[in-house]
Amino acid sequence: MTIAGKTVPPVKSVLEHLLGLLLGSLVYSAGLNLFLVPNEIIDGGVVGVGLIMTALTGVPFSVWIVALNIPFFFLGYRKVGASLAAYATAAVLILSFWSPIFEAMEPVTRDPFLATIFGGMIIGIGVGIVIRSGGSLDGTEIMAIWLDRKTAFTVGEIVMFFNVFILGSAGFVFSWNSAMYSLVAYFICSKMIDMVSNGLDESKGVFIVTDQSERVADAVMNQMHRAVTFLHGEGGFLRNDKKIIYCVISRLEVTRLKYLTHEIDPQAFLSIFDVREVQGGFMKKSRKH
Questions:
Q1: How far apart are CA 269 and CA 261, in angstroms?
Q2: pLDDT tens digits, one per residue of 61-90
Q3: Domain locations in the chain?
Q4: Which fold has domain 203-275?
């Protein structure tokens, strides 16, 4: 839909994003306030700064999380994109709504070890849902995207720099045990974010070098219903032309692909690697009438 020359996303799409932001912020707030905060364990980014400022000033976290993110959202709107800034703003406002509710509840555990593990997992799931919904709970990520364009550092390196500094500060405000637990929780959280935002069914890219390229390609397309692409290569020893097969499959299909390929050509060479994101290219099974 276009209004005044600008593309506006459909209402259904916006509602789906907002529902995801609502759910992700709820899950994140539950993990933060029922597991981490009662055990003086913090998260990274602006959330971590907000928790430290709450401990130092007594001003509620729901106030700090909004106030500290305002400059980053303004930067995101001007330099990164209005859509990301809008959804990130919505996510943080929803988080500030949930926080007082969960703060009033009794913590699930007072064991810092259990709180670190389960709190890290839960907040990671929450952040992953928010990311999949197009938003962000951490303004430093927006700054990192902007700095990535201006410096030689990657987004991940910039975020890691901020978070090591912030999580290390927990040692001065709370205790050094808290700082170490916070680093462990951050590591667990980052793994859960990848799992949720990328999906549980990870994709794998595969290069297949075989003298039976046509037969192997037919087997992959007809039996696994996956699209393939032929790349032209040359053997390094014999200097003969070769057709290299490239395809993308799910992690669960790796064993089947190996079996199909080696059943046709036991000498086939396969190179299998992780693929971060996939769109299109899959062949769907045809229905028999």
A1: 9
A2: 989 988 988 888 887 777 766 777 788 888
A3: 2-198, 203-275
A4: Alpha-Beta Plaits (3.30.70)
